[in-house]
Amino acid sequence: MVKSAVIQDTEAKILAAAGEVFREKGRDGAKMQEIADAAGINKAMLHYYFRSKDQLFETVFTQAAQHFFEKLNGILNADKTLFEMIHLLCGAYLTMATENPHFPLFIIGESNRNAEGFMKKIFSLKAKKPEFTRFKKLVQDEINLGHINNVKPEQIIMNILSLCIYPAMAKPMMKMGLGLTEKEFDSAIEERKQSIADLIIGSIRKN
Amino acid sequence: MVKSAVIQDTEAKILAAAGEVFREKGRDGAKMQEIADAAGINKAMLHYYFRSKDQLFETVFTQAAQHFFEKLNGILNADKTLFEMIHLLCGAYLTMATENPHFPLFIIGESNRNAEGFMKKIFSLKAKKPEFTRFKKLVQDEINLGHINNVKPEQIIMNILSLCIYPAMAKPMMKMGLGLTEKEFDSAIEERKQSIADLIIGSIRKN
DNA sequence: GTCTATAATTTGATAGAC
DNA sequence: GTCTATCAAATTATAGAC
């Protein structure tokens, strides 16, 4: 166990390469040969470690979902006020979507393709599925205190997810549609880091 | 030319079937056999009419984009006030996304896969690419009149698109994540038809 | 134009040497 | 564990009869 930390073992290399290719090309568009090339190893190794393309995909997908859920649960269960939590959620989602723009499309595509299987997978993860019960309670408390309007917590969640994730995942189309350069688009996204949480809060706060 | 209007010609049948399958399964996930079955014709016919799978996809994609752009241009160039136009845009996008939830994923996936080719395709359409110049002017006018805050029109567009499209395209994941039944989710979307435009307008209107 | 049968190609998967 | 060579299956594409 004195292996250099720089040199990943083969399994890790495969998972990293497969993750990238699957996210970019999708489950069907990704080819085993391309994954092998990206990992710098032979195609036969993929089968040696993961048996089949399906199994490799499942592993990659599960790992990605798990990683994200852990992060999310950290926020949703933190001891914060509603407004603080909205800020944190917006920051986390925006950062995730910006750094890894293919990830949301990847997840959504898979959940659309096979909703039942998707659900089963999610529920069998070690990391618990994100729980919004605490968030919902915070919303209800603020309503009772008269601080915010009588809104459904689900709508707030939908708004946060939409505003944070969509622009990043649709970047090429957005850039083109709005006629923005790469730089202009990136700075537009940067602006949103400040504005989205305020927009959400402004829309529910009682004046 | 006394053919019954009910019986579509083969080419139209193919395009309809291919559109459905491509949107649902994606460019790579869709199989020619499945398209042929959906169209109720033989696989060889697909090649007779469209030469190759690639060409069939391009035709379907272009046609879909064109149809949507025409609708959008109708709104963007209409003689309306800014607030009216925001309401119309939200309605059009929400309806589109709800009735055809696979369409946005389809377009975004393709534009991510090949941004340059996507742009070339769009620009060569008969229907002009949607122009936001008039929308931008309306925003600037309202800013000058002191009716709304000094916001960038691009941010408004991003917000409209995000809030309307994302929840519908991510329906299975949303349902699961929020623990909603089909019925509950649909009524949540229905609520948004009333609330989204108001949310957008509320976020920019000067009080 | 439409079909059946078949060719050609791509791609996932395995066998077997090292 | 890793590679080369090869197989097997799936899928696109075409040939040719009607």
What does this structure look like?
- 2 copies of one chain form a homodimer.
- The first copy, chain A, is built from 11 helices and no strands.
- By secondary structure, chain A is an all-alpha fold.
- The N and C termini of chain A lie far apart (62 Å).
- Chain B binds a DNA duplex (18 and 18 nucleotides) through α3.
Key attributes of the depicted protein:
homodimer; mainly alpha; Arc Repressor Mutant, subunit A; Tetracycline Repressor, domain 2; disordered N terminus; DNA-binding
Question: Which helices and strands occur, and which strands form pairs?
Answer:
The structure is a homodimer of 207-residue chains.
Chain A: H1 10-29, H2 32-39, H3 43-50, H4 53-76, H5 82-99, H6 102-113, H7 115-123, H8 133-144, H9 153-169, H10 171-178, H11 182-204
Chain B binds a DNA duplex (18 and 18 nucleotides) through helix 3.
Q: Do you know the CATH topology of the largest domain in chain A?
A: Tetracycline Repressor, domain 2
Mean pLDDT of chain A: 93
Number of strands of chain A: 0
Please compute the radius of gyration of chain A using only Cα atoms. Answer: 20 Å
CATH superfamily of the largest domain in chain A: Tetracycline Repressor, domain 2
Percentage of residues in helical conformation of chain A? over 70%
The greatest interface between two protein chains, and residues involved on each side, is: A-B, 53 and 52 residues
Number of helices of chain A: 11
Give the DSSP E fraction of chain A (strand runs of 2 or more residues).
under 5%
The global form of chain A is globular
Coarse structural class of chain A = mainly alpha
Please state the second-level CATH architecture of the largest domain in chain A: Orthogonal Bundle
**Oligomerization category of the chains in this entry:** homodimer
Classified by CATH, the class of the largest domain in chain A is Mainly Alpha
Total number of domains of chain A: 2
Q: What pattern of helices and strands is seen along the backbone of chain A? A: HHHHHHHHHHH
